[in-house]
Each structure stands twice: as structure tokens, then as C-alpha cells.
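Input record (one chain):
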Amino acid sequence: MAQLIGSILHNRYRIQSLLGHQTGRRTCLATDLKTGASVVIKLLLFGPDFTWDDLKLFEREAAVLQSLDHPAIPKYLDSFEVETEFGKGFALVQSYIKAKSLQQWLQSGRTFSQSELQAIATSLLKTLDYLHQRHPANVHRDVKPSNILLGSSSWCRQFGQVYLVDFGSVQTAASSGTRTVVGTYGYMPLEQFGGQTLPASDLYALGATLIYLATGQHPDQLPQHDMRLLFENRVTLSEHWIDWLKWLTEPSLDRRAPSTKQALEALEQFLKFPSSASFEPSQPPVGKEPDVLERPKQPILIVSGGSDQSLVTQSDTKNGMHTVSSVFGMLFRGVLIYGISYPIMFLVIISCTAVPYIAIQQTFFKGVDDYLANGDSFYQEQNYDSAINSYSEALKLDSNNDVAYVKRGDTYESKKDYDHAIADFNQALKLDPKNVDAFVSRGDAFENEKDYDRAIAEYNQALKLNPKNVRAYNNRGIAFYYKQDYDRAMTDYNQALRLDPKTAYVYCNRGLVYEAKNSHEAAMADFDQTLKLDPNYVDAYVWRGMIFYNRKDYDRAIANYNQALRLDSRNVYAYLDRGQTHFNQGNTAAAILDFDQALEIDPDIAVDAHYFRGLAYKDKGRKNEALEDLEKYVRLTKNAELKQKAQKEISLLRSIR
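The corresponding structure, as predicted from the sequence alone:
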């Protein structure tokens, strides 16, 4: 996969990074050399796991995107045949949207208010209405948090653009012939398991997505009764909002919201006139408390194998087992009420119970690549525990898969579990002593443990195997930077930029070296170039703010910190630096608020906030709070210089009566 980076496709598109990977498919971020714009390229490659259904879905996605023109949907740009070292295939080029997915916002700790849910729901209903009103109707079939993006201004005073992406599962409602079951468990209504896809199926997925945003729990982890999600006791929404969500997620098509227009009208109606909501969502049977079916603690996965979707459960028999009679009751209800075939309904029943995956994987599961692809999806969503589980399942099937060890090691590293990460990289290199990614990743683990010499040795080995590896040069430059060997760091960054002059993060890192060498103008030029290549590169704004701060140009420093926080509302360093800037301006109240925020987000990183907040409290005459912060700083800090200053401030405060 790494060999794709830097390659040029169709004499026009330079691959910058890999965004995703499943069996026979790769999704890449690339630069259009003709326009300079960032684009997304989806690759479908012929291989041993290729099926004609894969090609059918790929061609359908290209055809549908080419016919669409909506500001909330990626634009079709190009398509062509390709030939890579991985094989021949097809490429689909579409516009790149620089935005976080709802899944990423949730993983970062973001919560959603009812008004924010309203904005998301309204925007998505309008986008889905555009798709459903086409002739024939286009049904997305995979609406879920990771396929919904929010523009970077979403957490300011106004909501940013809400985008719907990934049309790899799209189908026209008029499609005939054999239908492939696609989608993601937890967001798929019952009829979709039987291959029946209607516009109302997208409404179910939208409702499940909104429930996830409101509860913070995957739909497949919520309790159920008669296949209805039980979520009302886990949210702080109005009664009408809860009823509306129940209406969208009603299992029965006859009782579910039938169209986007009616769903939107009902939403707007009860928002304007709360007492006159006109829909009648389903209710539990009257007369007794519903039996609650607790979902398995481990999610049930939709494993993607090209176009084929297979259900594999990772739960055990201790969670959520049904009696024989309840299972057969669900089976007959699905067959008689929903018209689903016995084999498909039996698959649904398995997914709703805690039958071990071993009992069904031989029938429905395709292979190692499916688990790897699923792990990649979890990794991108920062759901690291589930990613590790998926990679581990791949290794159970193929214990000699060095790629799986590297992927699992990278995931452990993201969890800061460096011992397990290094163990996995070691195993990968035993299996393939020339695995460049394993050397680089093992170097990253050593670097994170501040063992810079061992990190450099790993990067050296990677570069012996591949002298054009930009990541190895960049990361070795970081190690030299931390060793304060700025000249060698500069040499590595320059070499990385010679190999790829459009890599934003390398410019940012080189800017830090210039700043360390007191070449402030050169540093500023590199940060400016970073933002020219990537206007949403948060760290560049933070470091630019630092340069303005050192120049005592506090207004421009704060403007840069503000922009960083607009892009990333949980950036600890931006709050810390902006707080110090406010303090130097004499705005101690604003400084204290920023230090509070930094400590709330990450008290380990924001240790210095105790020192500066202590000084701010001192200026405000709040002696006890100042002493508490300064004393805590002395206990926690490893900065000898500031520790000594804090001790002097403590002595001074204690002398005041």
C-alpha cells in the first residue's frame, strides 16, 4: 500500500496518502497536478478476490455521482483505467472535502445538543430528498456517522456544511435482478437484509445515526424490544423529538416515515408547534413492561469483502442469549410480516443473539482481507479497541500476515501502548525482514518513548530499503529535532520536500527547526506554505501564533489561535498559548478561562496551565487559588526553570497576610 504514495496516475494525479483500504479497493488522497486541488481517488483493482459484483457497484457509483449536482455531495471529476504494481483496475476521481466525520467528532468527545441534531437532521433530509426525488430514486444504503461530514465551522456560532459521502453502496429503487446485501449493521433496517431497498431504508439509517449522536452509543449496543431501539432513557431530548426518532427507526415499513418530505414536514411542524405533531410512532405493547434485549458488549460487524457484505459477530454466549421460542418467534415474524426469506431472516436472528462468530464464520465470512478492511475502518474512526479486535481476528486466520501485525501495532501505538506496538512490529519483521512500514512504525514507537537514537536507527534501516520514503525522512527529522540536532533535521526535511514538494506537514516541521534556530522569517514562510497547501492545518496556525506572540504582536497571535480553535475546538496548545497571550495583554479573566479549558481537555499536556493560571489568580488577588495552582505545578512539572519561578511566587504569596 505504501508503494502507491508519491505515484502519479493518469499523468495527472499524485497520490499523497492512503485514506482507506478494503479487499481490492483503495481510497487515496491525491493532488491534481493540473489544477493543484486535492482530490479523492477510489481504486478498484483486479485480484484473486475480485468479483463482477465489485465492478457493478463501482460502475454504479461512478454513474450516479456523474449525474448528481448538489453542494452536500462530492462531485464526480474523472474516471479511467489504471495499472499499478497491485494490478490493473479502474479509478474514480471525486472532489475532496476537508472535514471531520460525525464518527470522528464523537470519538474526540464531542456531544450534540438538540438544536445541533435538528440542524444535522434538516440538512441530511434535504440531501436525501434530492436523491430520492430523482427518477429513478437513488437510495444511498449506507447512511452512518462515518459517511457524514461536518464543515470546520460546525462548532462556531453557525453550523457548517453537512456532507453525505461514500456512494459505493448506492442503488436505484428501480433496480432489478440479483441484489447484493450491503450496508452497516445497526443502521440497516430489516428489509435491507432481504435485498429490498427503498427510500425509507435511508430514513431508518438516518434515525439510527441521530440516536447514536444523542446517546453516544452505537445502535447495535442499545437494548431492543421487538427489534425497536430502546434509547429514550439515555437521551435528554424533548418528547416530540424522541417520538420522531422512533418513527424514523420503526422496523415495519408500514409504520415508518414513508418519505423525506414527510419526515422533514413533521420535524418542522413539531418544532414550530410542539403540541401538534401529526405522526404516530410505534409504542411498546400496553399492559406490561417490555422485555429488554441487551445487545452484546462487542459490536456485530458488517465485514466488507468487495461488494459482498457478511455478518460476523464478536460476542460470546454470556450476553443477550434468547430462548428457542423467542428466536423462532423472531424468525416467523420476519418471514410473515416483512416478507424476508428464511435464510436471510435466520442471519438476522444470529446477528441479534450472542451465537459465537465461530459458528457462522465458515458460512458467511470471506477471509483475512475482510477483517483487515474492517480494522482499517475502525482505525479511521479512532475506535481503536474494535480495530485491534479485527486485526487480531485476521491473525487468527493467518498468523503469518505481516501487514496485519503492522496495522495492529500502529493501533496499539495510537493507544500509547508502545510495548504491545513494538512486539507487533518485531513479529512483522520476523515474517518479512524487508517490511519498510514495520521499521518506520517501530521507529515511531521508540520516538514516542523518547528513545531517539533507536528511532533513528529504525528510520535508517527503512531508508536503506526504500531511499524515497518521505515518511521515514520526516520522522527521522523529528527525532533529530528533539535531539536538538537541527542541521540534520533540516537535511531530512529538505530531502523529504525534494521527493514530494507538496507535503504540508513537512513544511510545518521544517518551520519548527527554523524557529529553533531563531530564523523567524524563514519559519513564518514555511508555516505560510503549509497553510497554502492545506488551509486547515491546525498546528501551522498555532506556531504562527507563537511567532506573533514572540514579536509581541498579540492581536495577530490571538487571531491565529482563534483560527486554530475554529478548526479544532479541543486543541490544548492553542488554549494554552492564547491564555498566555491574554495574560500578557492584561486580560486575566480571559486567560483563566483558556487555562481552565486546556486543563479540562488534557491535564497531562496542560501542566504549564497551573503555573500561568496561578499567576493570573495572583493578579486577581485570589491568593488561595493561586497557591493551589502553583503548588500543584511544582509537584507535576519537569521544567526546572519554571519550577524555580513557581517556588519563588509561592514564597512571596505565603509572606502576604
